[in-house]
Amino acid sequence: MKIVLGLLVMAVGLACFNYTSMGNEEHHVEWADEHGLPRPSAPIFFSGAAATVLGAGFVGFSLGRRRRA
Known about the structure:
Largest sheet: none
Helix content: over 70%
Number of domains: 1
Strand content: under 5%
Shape: elongated
């Protein structure tokens, strides 16, 4: 269960990376305006980075502990 939670957090972080990627910024700004969501910004990028690192750490920690026991 812990691994699934870590993977979910990591997926949200990667989605934030995709949302703030510079190659698709114009498309994401248009989409955000149409749906009433926040535009891609630095706080979303940094939140995605933190979520990706925390999720990956949680998955790695869970897998490492499971194999040792």
